[in-house]
Amino acid sequence: MNIKPTLVLTFVTTIIAALLIVAHNLTYVDTSGIITDKLRAKCEELMGSGEYSIITDWQTEGYLIDKPDGIQKLIRKDDGKLAFEIVANGYNKGGLDLLISMNGDGSVGGIAVVSITETPGLGTNVNDPGFLSLFGGLSTDAVIVKKTPSETNEVEAVTGATYSSKGVASAVNTAIRVYSEMGVSR
Questions:
Q1: Tens-digit pLDDT profile for residues 26-85
Q2: Which residue from 11, 33, 68, 173 lies 20 to 30 Å from 157 (Cα-Cα)?
Q3: Is residue 17 assigned to a domain?
Q4: What pLDDT sits at residue 79?
């Protein structure tokens, strides 16, 4: 039995793996604190033009909690307005990347879709401004219903996109809950 080819192959793959690790470490750029052009456009759509920054250390900024699970980014505008970037599950896991701005009173200011990977023609219909506007002003948990809403916190699901509609509501509910836990005073 000749073991030499096995040893040579192991040695070569180990060297290649080590070189890949070194190359990755030399070229890696942390983009978690960067606002992309697309995200900036969505911020301006919801909160107007201005300077935006990503808050990475919540407690240093005076908030009562650290960044909870479910929040991708906390974005603050130069005038103090806040928005959360939240990735939520719709029909697809992680299919909804939403930006949710908050009013000073803890209600939802607006919602913008950063990206969506839901089913085209069905789940993607939650990107309709008319549907998204139904969440504006809510300060209690949104509830998705399949009929005409009878309560102020109820929102009628987009036809054929119940899971996606519930994903948007879940993201909104997360934003409302986290905003209230942050201890924001304005």
A1: 887 766 678 889 999 999 999 999 999 999 888 888 888 888 888 999 999 999 999 999
A2: 68
A3: no
A4: 94
* DSSP structure string for 145-175: ESS---STTEEEPPTT-HHHHHHHHHHHHHH
Contacts by residues 142-146 (CB-CB < 8 Å, ≥ 24 positions apart): 142/169, 142/172, 142/173, 143/169, 144/169
Q: State the Cα–Cα distance between residues 179 and 82, nearest whole angstrom.
A: 9
Q: Give the residue numbers spanning the domain of 153.
A: 31-182
* Overall number of domains in the chain: 1
Q: Is residue 165 part of a domain?
A: yes
- Distance, CA of 110 to CA of 46 (rounded, Å): 6
In 174-184, which positions are buried (b, 16+ CB within 10 angstroms) versus exposed (e)?
bbbebbeebeb
